[in-house]
Each structure stands twice: as structure tokens, then as C-alpha cells.
């Protein structure tokens, strides 16, 4: 037999739901900003926010916010790559199950590999344009 003391009560408490909503809203603002760049990537000449990291609440891990090689930075590239990895998908679904989050919001926090591949194609085009600009600047200097 099961009774009321066998179940996890804190998931359904108002305080837990308020904290969960606060965390998800905070994280979703960062994800929304990164998702906007899926269709128009921002490739920056030089290093942008060096060493910038952010916390993934679903994975309980610190991740790189941007992808950089010190000469070029892909804004939110680190977050987008993390959101597309299998480990993030698995942990996000577990986080949702464990905390009783709204299932309709789950897709917001997951990025599929096809979306990431399209993003990478757009980034490569942007990198080619950036290389052309660098070559033009080099020709003007010489």
C-alpha cells in the first residue's frame, strides 16, 4: 500500500514551483538570446568576453558561453553546442521529471543536431566573410 508520506511532497509545493519558475525564467532568457542567433550568427573579430561561462541548471554544470580561438569569437556558440549534446538532452529530461516542470516548455531548453548543423553552416559562411574583410584590411595596410 502507498500513502501520502511515500511521495515527494516538495515538488508540488508553492515555494518549490516559484523557485523552479524563477530558475527556468532566468535560464530561458539566456537561451532565447542564443536561439535568436541560430538564424543569424554573430561572429566577432577578436576575443569577446574572454573566459565567460554560464551555469546549466539542468546539467548542474558550468559551460562556456562563447566559442573562441582568441582571434575570432562565435557568440553563444558554447551554449548552443551544449544544448545540442546528448548528455544535455538526457539530463534536461531528468530535471523535468525530477522537478515536475511544465512539459510544454521542455523543447525550449533542447536543441537538436539538425539545428546545430544549420547554425554551423551559417557560421562558416560568416567566417569566410570575416576572412575576406581581414584580407582587405591587410592589403590596405601594405
List the helices and strands and how they pair.
Blueprint: H1 14-36, E1 43-45, E2 53-56, E3 61-64, E4 67-68, E5 72-74, H2 77-84, H3 86-99, H4 113-141
Antiparallel strand pairs: 1-5, 2-3, 4-5
User: Rg, please?
Assistant: 20 Å
Instruction: Give the proportion of residues in helices.
Output: 40-55%
Shape: elongated
For the largest beta-sheet, the strand count, sense and barrel status come to: 3 strands, antiparallel
Give unreliable regions as ranges: none
H and E order: HEEEEEHHH
Give the termini separation: 84 Å
Percent of residues in beta strands? Answer: 5-15%
Brief synopsis:
The chain has 142 residues and is mostly helical.
Please supply descriptive tags for the structure shown above.
142 residues, 4 helices, 5 strands
Question: What does this molecule look like?
Answer:
The chain has 142 residues and is mainly α. Helices cover 52% and strands 11% of the residues. The chain has four helices and five strands. Strands 1-5-4 form a three-stranded antiparallel beta sheet, covered by helices on one side. A two-stranded antiparallel sheet has the order 2-3. Strand 2 and strand 3 (61-64) form a beta hairpin. It is elongated, with a radius of gyration of 20 Å.
Amino acid at each position: 500500500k502507498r500513502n501520502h508520506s511515500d511521495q515527494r511532497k516538495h515538488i508540488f509545493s508553492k515555494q518549490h514551483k516559484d523557485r523552479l519558475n524563477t530558475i527556468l525564467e532566468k535560464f530561458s532568457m539566456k537561451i532565447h538570446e542564443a536561439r535568436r542567433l541560430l538564424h543569424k550568427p554573430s561572429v566577432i573579430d577578436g576575443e569577446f568576453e574572454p573566459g565567460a561561462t554560464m551555469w546549466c541548471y539542468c546539467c548542474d554544470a558550468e559551460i562556456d558561453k562563447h566559442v573562441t580561438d582568441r582571434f575570432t569569437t562565435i557568440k553563444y556558440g558554447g551554449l548552443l553546442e551544449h544544448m545540442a549534446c546528448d548528455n544535455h538532452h538526457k539530463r534536461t529530461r531528468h530535471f523535468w521529471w525530477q522537478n515536475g516542470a511544465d512539459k510544454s516548455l521542455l523543447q525550449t531548453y533542447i536543441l537538436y543536431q539538425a539545428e546545430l548543423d544549420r547554425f554551423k553552416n551559417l557560421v562558416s559562411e560568416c567566417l569566410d566573410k570575416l576572412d575576406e574583410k581581414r584580407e582587405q584590411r591587410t592589403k590596405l595596410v601594405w
